[in-house]
Amino acid sequence: MRRRRWPVVLVVLGVLALLTWYVGYTQHVVTQLRGAAGSQGRMYGRIYRALLDTSAAGEDKTPVLFELAGQVKESGLPLVITDAEGHVSAAANLPDIPALDTAAFVRDLDRRNAPILEPGVGGVHFGDSPIVNGLRVIPVLQAAGIGLLLAFGLYALVERGRAEREKVWAGMAREAAHQLGTPLSAMAGWLELMREETTNPTMTRAVEAMTQDLTRLDRVSHRFERIGRPPRDEVVDCTALVDRLAAYFAARAPTLARRVSITSEHPDGAITTRGDGVLLEWVLEVLIKNAIDALGGRDGAVVVSAQRQPEGGVRIRVADNGPGVPRKLRKRIFDAGFTTKDRGWGIGLSLARRIVEENHGGKLLLADVDLGAAFDVILIG
Q1: Which domain holds residue 9?
Q2: What is the pTM of this model?
Q3: CB neighbours of 381 closer than 8 A, spacing ≥ 6?
Q4: In terms of domains, do 241 and 373 share one?
């Protein structure tokens, strides 16, 4: 479930960040517009004052004009004035570029805004103020925000449909497990009766084998009960787990046309971790079955081992001495639906990785070995 939540969290955080930035940026633009309006008001007031000032019969207005020119520079508006022959006579707010091609810059300004021809002055070429440039960004951000919201809505609808389907499948799985309970209990009673009544050694061995199979069926039914529910957090004895599974599959491995040995390895003493023992057993069964199938009709060996990691945690490895996994397929073997078997469903390794990574916070990796194939289940707890 954690893997499915992080896209939703990222989208929500992205939308919130975009909206926060958008609100802040529009407030900044409003502040700039207010400042520009105030600057234009002051400029108009000074011009009007100069026009009304009739003292001294035409007092020199040069200081006022210089002050107005300074305000134009402070506005950030790119401005170039050329004479009748096209030579630059004045400029303001040019870009800080070494060896600026002024003629090319003037042409660029004219493409943005038509120049103003002022008699006695020449041509006035101007660009866009920082406020106008900023306003151009807002529609793009609005479109991006709307697109992000639409994408989030579509993703939510898809996830809702998927969650509903998974809920139905989980309910069916739990109902199947519930229905299996009655016949399994009855079979257990009949086997117990057969064990008490028989004295034939062959029948006794058969009853013991059937009891083991019945126990495994009971575990499988418990697995289906776990579908759609949070995994358990309990102490799992990894040494006992690998010993039990190796013994179970060794008793059922081919021994006639081909011989497959299945053994377990681990150091002395218990190696424990925290997790869901039923789900971890499911993972190892998938890996062991794949290892047996990988031998492809030849003699071979499968080793199930458990050991502690130097950096902490536990590593459970299922290794075989078969042909190994081709390099071109290594990136696809964990994809749902991918299989190299004629009758395979392609969900075993995908399900195993999901159990290890999403339910236990660990890793399921294809190890790099010299012979055969080895899958490592890395558990941190």
Answers
A1: 2-133
A2: 0.52
A3: 273, 274, 275, 313, 360, 361, 362
A4: yes
